[in-house]
Specification:
This protein is an alpha/beta fold. It has seven helices and twelve strands. It has helices at residues 45-53, 77-83, 100-112, 118-132, 149-163, 179-194, 231-240; strands at 3-14, 20-30, 34-38, 58-67, 70-71, 85-87, 95-99, 142-143, 167-171, 198-203, 216-221, 224-229. The chain has a six-stranded mixed sheet, sandwiched between helices. The protein starts with a strand and ends in a 7-residue tail after the last helix.
Length: 247
């Protein structure tokens, strides 16, 4: 299989004060694979996602990130997005004055060109919100403004589906979702993956993984991956907690 993402001995610190958060992360994700990262609060999971995406809040001090065999450590977040990396937010931004559908279509054309008409793209969006079980005015509202917690998560997964990334990073996409919304979001993740997108999902809980076809689960503690395996790793975490790393 083709290597899509390669993280090699990655160390990173807060740019503001130099506090080290990533302490030697190694990870490889092939094309069309789904990997899950589980770990306790404060272990640096979200920092890893942000460093992959190029958040300037963090500074890489050692190691490398390769995407499609090319180093991306010196690329801006926008340049990484143009290469096909998409990350969802735990707490998505609310942007007044920008209609959700206009935002999506503008972003799509920036990434994929304007060969599809506005009408064609809008029809895709209308069909997709039916699957998400959201209100008919979902696309006409300002981006995330007034959205419930569940609607914000569905907004993120709609963006991920519509923009067709090569690598989708999901940072606690399951947080705050009820059982029905969790199933809907998980189904959308699987539809995204069917198109060949690789997925890296960061989560505290096994419950969303029960709906997904997971290739690898990684336990992440104190800034690095300390244990990897199949879904049995998530089962062990559910049963025993992160003490499994001592076994």
């Amino acid at each position: 299989m083709n290597k899509l993402l390669q993280i090699r001995d990655l160390h990173a610190s807060l740019a503001e004060d130099g506090t080290e958060i990533l302490k030697g992360v190694n990870l490889e994700i092939n094309t069309n694979e789904l990997h899950a990262i589980m770990g306790p609060n404060g272990s640096g999971k979200s920092t890893l996602a942000n460093v992959i995406m190029g958040n300037p809040k963090y500074k890489i001090t050692k190691g490398n990130i390769l995407f499609e065999e090319e180093s991306i450590v010196n690329l801006s977040p926008n340049e990484r997005a143009m290469k096909g990396i998409f990350m969802t937010f735990q707490n998505p931004f609310e942007i007044e004055g920008i209609k959700f559908s206009s935002f999506l279509i503008t972003a799509y054309r920036k990434l994929h060109g304007d060969q599809d008409t506005f009408s064609q793209l809008n029809n895709i969006l209308k069909e997709r919100i039916q699957r998400l079980n959201v209100s008919n005015d979902f696309l006409d509202r300002f981006l995330n403004v007034g959205f419930s917690g569940g609607e914000k998560k569905k907004s993120e997964i709609l963006q991920a589906y519509f923009l067709k990334p090569k690598l989708l990073i999901l940072d606690e996409i399951d947080s705050g979702l009820d059982v029905d919304a969790l199933r809907i979001v998980a189904n959308q993740i699987m539809e995204i993956r069917k198109r060949g997108t690789s997925v890296l999902i960061i989560t505290h809980y096994k419950r969303i993984l029960d709906y997904l076809d997971v290739d690898n689960v990684h336990v992440y503690i104190d800034g690095k991956i300390v244990k990897s395996g199949g879904i049995e790793i998530a089962n062990a975490v559910e049963e025993k907690g992160y003490a499994i790393v001592k076994e």
